[in-house]
Every structure is written in structure tokens, then in C-alpha cells.
Queue: 4 jobs
Job 1
Amino acid sequence: GMAPRARVAAYKVCWNANYVNPQGTPERGCFFGDSMAAIDEAVADGVDVLNYSIGNSPNINTPVYNSALKAAEAGVFFAASAGNSGPGPSTTSNI
């Protein structure tokens, strides 16, 4: 292959649970706190590339984008998918 010594690190950030909180809201999905913790852990683990294939807000100042910026400042290449809500105009979710 192209990178015979490459290693893959995976971090779980999305949850599909049957738990419903006292307010009646299901506790499942991809939460900012879990994503931020995984990005921080990946940087601490010394990864070179982060592939973030989870939809996000189109707003540039979200916690995940701020964590991605910190990862990039630490020398990690951060790649984010554009989203998967198409096919229509304005269906991308990562800038």
C-alpha cells in the first residue's frame, strides 16, 4: 500500500442509546463535548490527520470548529466532510 506503516486511531463520539432524560428528550447523537474530547485526545495521541465525517453547524464559531482550529495549530491536518443532506441547494453543513 501507499503507507505501510500507517496506523489508524478511532474515537467514538456518536451514541445511539435508548435513554430518555427527565425532560423527555432522547440522549443520542453526536454531542459537541464528545467531539471536542476526541479531537483533543487525538492531538495528545500524536495523530497527523483527523477525518471528521460528522455533520456540523454551518456557523464558523462552534465548539467543534474551535477544537479543529486548535488541532490545526498543533500541526494536525483536519479534514471535515461537507455534510450529507443533499441533493439540494444549501445542504452542506461543514464549511
Job 2
Amino acid sequence: LICVALIGWNELLVDGYTDFNEVHHAPPLADALPSFLTFKLVLPTDPFFLCGGPLGLLLVFRNDCSYSRYKEAFHHVEVAMSSLSNMQLMASNA
């Protein structure tokens, strides 16, 4: 929500915006505010930089856990299919 507010402020009041045809437009609401309120708002990048590594590791370990659950489930399916195949063979020999 904060990012949306910052983007809205910067594009509607300060910098303007660029459309899909790469045409830059002036800020549409720039005349609605006094000149001392037309400052650009930015977020600091340090928190994002510091959280990137731990979040990446968390994502890797989460993927590893989900892959191990998938392998375990696949093993159970293989065992069940093997048991069914064995039962079919025993039934056909009887």
C-alpha cells in the first residue's frame, strides 16, 4: 500500500508517467499543489538489500522440503502400484 502511494505521488504530482508506447507525459496533477509540495518520495533500498539473502535461503529450503514431500508421495504411489501389480499376477495364477 505504501509503494502504491509513493508511485501515485511521484507519477501524478512530480515526475509524470510513461505509457505503453514509451511516450512520456507530464504529471497531470502538478498544478494542483503548491511548488513546495512537489518533492519526490523514495523508499530506502537497504532493507530490501538486507532481506534479500535470508528470503532467498528461506525459499530454497522451502522448495527443498516440498520436493522431499513430492519424492515421498511418489515413492508411496510406486509401492501401491507395485502391490496392485503383484495382486493381479497372483489372481491370474490362481
Job 3
Amino acid sequence: MSSVVARALNSSKRIKIKPIVSSNPDQAKRRVLTLYKQWFRAVPLIIRTYQLPYPVETVQAKIKENFMKNSHVRDVRAIDILIIKGEMDLQETLLNWKQDCHVRDYFEHPTKIQEPTDFLGKFLTQKH
């Protein structure tokens, strides 16, 4: 009988975590795709504004690479934080608050994605 009481107490102590913006994973996914489309639509303007010597396809590939870097994140709150950071970065880029060197740094240094080395890590990172 005491184990039933203990379980009841433990379940009542759980605190419901409030969402930041998205209330479920589907809503977070929709917001990620919206941000992705906003970045892609802004590519010609970014190239003109910062006079980048790269074609549109190269800039779009780099944007895709940066989004795929965080594709393993599944926590809705973490996704919301990444979306907010991405929106701020887009706003800073479009309003010309960044210097040319900040934008060019995206292309000078390749994005490093850590590849798992052990069996379990490789198994868990497979796309389903």
C-alpha cells in the first residue's frame, strides 16, 4: 500500500513545463519550415546587399547545411529557442546590422557536424 501512496506523491510533484511558443512538435515543425522558406526567399537580397561572390545555389546550400546541423533536436522548447535565434539572425542580416565579414564567415569555415563513432550513436542518428 505504501508504494501506491509513494507513486501518487511522485506524480503530483511533477511540474508541467510551459511551452515557449510551440505547443506541440507539429507546430514547431511548421515554424521551422516557415523560417527556412523566409531564409530562402531572402537569398537574392542578401547576395545583393552584402555583394557576395557566390551564386544563389551556394548560399541556399549553406542555409540548408545550417538547418540540418540541428535536425537531431527533438525537444520542442529547444526547437523554439533555435527558431527564435534563427529569426533574430535573419532580421539582423536583412536590416544590414551585420558587417560583410560576419556574413562571409559562414562560407569561409565549413560547418562541423559531429559524426558518432560508437555503434549506438550511429544507430540512433540514422534517418527513419
Job 4
Amino acid sequence: MPIRNFTKRSGVTRVAEDLCTNPRHKKYLENIKQSQVEKLLQIIQERLKGLSMDETLEKVKGERSIDPEEDLNGLDDDALNKKKEVMDETFEKNRKKPGDNDFEYEVEVDFDKEGPPIESGWDSENDSDPMF
């Protein structure tokens, strides 16, 4: 499957959409998620930029993973949408559905509380509002 006019500056999302919707390629790509096609195109693009395969894979892995300490508020819309897509894929991969071998209908988890409860002030019963 040729990827014509694909350069190191091409838009990966647009090229992936074009490939997935092209009638000639659609039958081959209909069972492959567009995000997977984008990932493969991103690897090709980084190689065109001159990065080694190890550097390329590390970069793509970093962009397609979620760091729990990362502040997502500062990201632009495109980067945020990619992070959300990664979160959705991770959720679906880890989701337990009826019919799965390890599916349990009602799971109760008791989280142990370490130390005394933290006082927040907003939920204390002493500060009742006379209006209610």
C-alpha cells in the first residue's frame, strides 16, 4: 500500500483518514483502528526525520502514553485529543465486560483509611446554614 506524498511535515491524522477512507485500501484497513494507522505513520515520519528506530519508538511511546503526573490543562486541543484517545483505548483494553472469564457483577472494594480523617471544613455539621 503506497503512501504517496508523505513527508516529514505531513499531517499524520489527515493521511491516516485518507488511507482508511480510500476505497482501494478500505477493505484492508477496515478492521484496524485509525489510531493504529496513525501510530505506524508517525513511526515512518520520525524515521524520515532521521531518528534511529530506538529513538523513534521511544518518542512515539512517550506521546502515546499517559503520565499520571502530567498536567493536561496546558496542552493544545490536538495533543489533548490524542491523550484522551489513549485514555479511551486503555480503558477499553482493561474493561471487564459480561462474558469475560474474570467478570464480577458487583465488586465491593474497602479502601483502608490510613491515619485520622482529613477535616475539610465544608462538610462539618457544626456550621449548619440557617437558610436550610
